[in-house]
């Protein structure tokens, strides 16, 4: 009996080794994306035969065989977001156009990254299409899970350039999405940090719209009224919800820096400078002096909820939340909100954190060509414009010039977005695989400073810990 | 030989021939191997590698992961925090559960209804309950601060301050798991023979003497089992902390389990995370053995 047991154990051990080495395998085979034969062909006679004019607003005029994959099925992984809500609501249109059915999952942001990681690692039923974000892109890219979209855009068999109108995407957005000479995703949202403020409250107290950090702090303190549950300022301070990126805007705008990635991929950290310490002190002071109690548990959803309930006077966060605070059904303050660009310290030029959610193809996907149809449809002018009109946001240039759009969302909002966009910098998000780890380190540090610890000491620790992480990486 | 003796016995019964016996337990054994043994073996194998979640090449790194962990201050802080969590929550649950069970031995009005209500926290989904608690803990809108304000006490930060966060989570743990302790103690006490107690009362023993000299010694096996279950369970805690604080503020509630999760899924270091989990596994295993030995509990 013992003999059998020993044999059994040996068998299990062997299996486990097989499994351990196997988990590295899918990446090895996919690090060189093979692509499908049809997609790898370059464009040859895209505009050869002069046919009927292509109207970028009319699907039927596009020189694309929309029914090519009729009856096919693709799998999409979507993050719970106003963009994915808008897409899901239109899936029937896509199916009517192409005959492709979309099997989708919509997952809350806090779990979305993990779910993707598990999907890619297991490789059992990988998604064809997924929402990609810069916070995870370097890690996904390192796994070889991103499909370069350039070949698809240039493929005349799948794409009509006149219809797709690639040049209409905001150049800054395309620049943001590019990674290591590839285009792993198409931008679908345009999110820049802007200032939301309660017009009525500022007026009541005779406060001008803050333009500098000093003015922002002063205004926040004046508006803060804990007795009546009114917070002067809300934003993100919670760990794991992009707080480090948001703080990065303040840090760089005050002349500091965080992590600099060189061309050869190596990275350095330089965060305990006088500017870095000042920025950390300033950012946490906004919450200490004028934020809600327990601000360390405020992510964007809590901040937006506070704004919606009328319990906050000002908020700095992505412009994408405009739809939520202006929705009369869920917001008590719809119509009372004003918008302004991200402030500066009056000395250094403002540098704003931006984010474009992207739609990408997975290199592991089984139906990439059909997936590309989905991407093309979802980012096409008619769909992008309809979504933008609903949500006040988008990544195509023409949207921001659209008259209906301007009339609907107001000049101050569009100006706030454009001014913030003009000075937004992609390098605020460190483009390294270890991004989440260095983010956690700096976010923990901010919590300690918020809790009363000495900023210089904490930032020295943040510097040392981040350096250790980067050393391992290099 | 022992084996033939057993087979003889079975043959004598002539109901369960030996060769079928193995067949009958095979599904259970396979089930255990696949679901319990296999993952642990994979974990052990991974802990000696630099496996990442982002598809880089995997190398055997020997004890490198263990060296890194045992030489990092963070690990000892996380480990200490875990011990504090386990000690505080289990101690409070054992004491509360014991006295509640004792109280319910006395006839109380609406005993059944009260008992059913008490078990509710145990049967509800932990994550859902945690969301409920996180709303109650909200310093601005939560009901707890409102109740405190009725007594003239100012708002407390609960899970938002490094000083109180871990205790607030322990409080939820106590709320959630005391019913389990209560339930086991209750059935243990009900099953006890009445005679020794009656004899002691006749001899003039007081309440505390009864508990110390008769109840505790006779209920010791139950005590050991409950303690072991609770300790192992408390070491595994993840959902409560993840939902209520996510390890924050700062790293005030970052227990080893949270650190393992971060290491594996946020920092992509699967090998490192496996090594950390293995250290905890060994520690909990040794601790359970010690509890069982100390309680002289026969597992047979």
UniProtKB/TrEMBL annotation, chain A:
Per UniProt, the keywords (alphabetical) are:
Signal
SUPFAM superfamilies xrefs = Periplasmic binding protein-like II (SSF53850)
Q: Where is the composition biased (Polar residues)?
A: 32-51
User: Which chain regions cross the lipid bilayer?
Assistant: none
InterPro entries under this entry?
A: Bact_solute-bd_prot1, SBP
Which stretch is the leader sequence? 1-20
Quote the Pfam families the UniProt record gives. Answer: SBP_bac_1 (PF01547)
Q: Where is this region: Disordered?
A: 26-57
Q: Per its UniProt entry, which superkingdom is the organism in?
A: Bacteria
Q: What is this protein called?
A: Carbohydrate ABC transporter substrate-binding protein (CUT1 family)
Q: Which organism is it from?
A: Harryflintia acetispora
Automatic annotation (TrEMBL), chain B:
Organism lineage: Bacteria, Bacillati, Bacillota, Clostridia, Eubacteriales
Q: How does it sit in the membrane?
A: Multi-pass membrane protein
Primary localisation category: membrane
User: Which named protein is this?
Assistant: Carbohydrate ABC transporter membrane protein 1 (CUT1 family)
Q: What is the similarity comment for this entry?
A: Belongs to the binding-protein-dependent transport system permease family.
Key words of the record: Cell membrane, Membrane, Transmembrane, Transmembrane helix, Transport
Membrane-spanning segments:
21-45, 83-104, 116-137, 166-185, 205-229, 270-292
Q: Which GO terms describe its cellular component?
A: plasma membrane
UniProt cross-references to Gene3D superfamilies, sorted A to Z = MetI-like
For the keyword Transferase, the answer is no
Keyword check for Transcription regulation: no
What's a GO biological-process term for it? transmembrane transport
Q: Which organism is it from?
A: Harryflintia acetispora
* Locations listed in the record: Cell membrane
């Amino acid at each position: 009996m013992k003999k059998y047991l020993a044999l059994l154990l040996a068998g299990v051990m062997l299996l486990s080794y097989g499994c351990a080495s196997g988990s590295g395998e899918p990446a090895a085979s996919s690090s060189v994306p093979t692509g499908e034969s049809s997609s790898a062909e370059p464009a040859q006679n895209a505009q050869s035969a002069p046919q009927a004019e292509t109207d970028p607003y009319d699907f039927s005029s596009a020189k694309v065989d929309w029914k090519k994959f009729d009856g096919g099925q693709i799998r999409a992984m979507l993050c719970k977001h106003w963009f994915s809500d808008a897409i899901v609501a239109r899936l029937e249109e896509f199916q009517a156009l192409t005959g492709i059915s979309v099997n989708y999952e919509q997952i809350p942001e806090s779990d979305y990254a993990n779910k993707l990681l598990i999907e890619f690692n297991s490789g059992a039923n990988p998604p064809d299409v997924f929402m990609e974000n810069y916070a995870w892109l370097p890690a996904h890219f390192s796994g070889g899970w991103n499909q370069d979209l350039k070949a698809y855009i240039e493929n005349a068999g799948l794409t009509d350039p006149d219809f797709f109108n690639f040049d209409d995407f905001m150049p800054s957005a395309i620049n943001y999405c590019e990674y290591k000479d590839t285009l792993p995703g198409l931008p679908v949202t345009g999110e820049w940090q802007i200032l939301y403020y309660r017009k009525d409250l500022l007026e009541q107290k005779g406060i001008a719209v803050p333009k500098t950090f000093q003015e922002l702090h002063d205004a926040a303190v004046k508006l803060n009224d804990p007795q009546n549950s009114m917070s002067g300022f809300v934003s993100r301070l919670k760990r794991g919800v992009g707080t480090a990126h948001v703080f990065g805007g303040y840090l760089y705008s005050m002349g500091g820096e965080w992590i600099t990635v060189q061309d050869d991929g190596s990275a350095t950290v330089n965060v305990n400078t006088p500017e870095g310490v000042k920025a950390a002190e300033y950012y946490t002071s906004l919450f200490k002096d004028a934020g809600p109690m327990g601000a360390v548990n405020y992510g964007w959803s809590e901040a937006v909820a506070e704004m919606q309930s009328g319990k906050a006077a000002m908020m700095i966060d992505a412009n994408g939340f405009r739809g939520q605070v202006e929705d009369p059904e869920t917001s008590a303050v719809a119509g009372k909100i004003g918008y302004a660009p991200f402030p500066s310290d009056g000395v250094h030029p403002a540098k704003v954190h931006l984010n474009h959610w992207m739609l990408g193809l997975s290199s592991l996907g089984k139906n990439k060509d059909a997936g590309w149809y989905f991407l093309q449809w979802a980012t096409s002018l008619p769909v992008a414009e309809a979504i933008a009109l609903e949500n006040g946001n988008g990544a195509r240039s023409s949207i921001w010039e659209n008259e209906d759009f301007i009339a609907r969302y107001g000049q101050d909002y569009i100006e706030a977005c454009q001014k913030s966009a003009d000075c937004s910098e992609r390098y605020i998000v460190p483009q390294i695989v270890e991004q989440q780890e260095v983010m956690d380190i700096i976010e923990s540090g901010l919590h300690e400073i918020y809790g009363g610890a000495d900023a210089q000491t904490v930032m020295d620790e943040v510097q040392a810990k981040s350096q250790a992480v980067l050393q391992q990486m290099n | 030989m022992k084996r033939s003796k057993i087979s003889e016995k079975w043959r004598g019964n002539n109901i369960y021939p030996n060769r079928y016996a193995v067949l009958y337990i095979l599904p259970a054994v396979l089930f255990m191997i696949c679901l319990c043994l296999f993952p642990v073996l994979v974990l052990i194998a991974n802990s000696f590698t630099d496996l990442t979640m982002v598809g880089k090449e995997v190398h055997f790194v020997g004890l490198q992961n263990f060296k890194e962990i045992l030489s990092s201050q963070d690990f000892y802080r996380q480990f200490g925090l875990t011990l504090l969590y386990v000690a505080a929550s289990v101690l409070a649950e054992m004491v509360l559960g014991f006295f509640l069970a004792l109280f319910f031995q006395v006839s109380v009005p609406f005993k059944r209804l009260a008992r059913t209500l008490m078990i509710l926290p145990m049967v509800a989904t932990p994550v859902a309950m945690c969301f409920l608690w996180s709303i109650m803990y909200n310093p601005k809108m939560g009901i707890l601060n409102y109740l405190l304000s009725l007594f003239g006490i100012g708002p407390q930060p609960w899970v938002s301050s490094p000083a109180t966060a871990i205790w607030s989570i322990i409080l939820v743990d106590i709320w959630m798991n005391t019913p389990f302790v209560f339930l086991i103690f209750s059935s243990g006490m009900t099953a006890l023979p009445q005679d020794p107690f009656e004899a002691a009362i006749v001899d003039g023993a007081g309440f505390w003497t009864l508990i110390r000299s008769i109840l505790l010694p006779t209920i010791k096996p139950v005590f050991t089992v409950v303690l072991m279950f609770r300790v192992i369970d408390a070491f595994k805690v993840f959902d409560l902390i993840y939902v209520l604080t996510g390890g924050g503020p700062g790293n005030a509630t970052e227990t080893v389990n949270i650190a393992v999760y971060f290491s594996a899924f946020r920092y992509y270091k699967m090998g490192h995370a496996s090594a950390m989990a293995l250290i905890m596994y060994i520690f909990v295993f040794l601790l359970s053995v010690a509890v069982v030995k100390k309680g002289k509990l026969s597992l047979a």
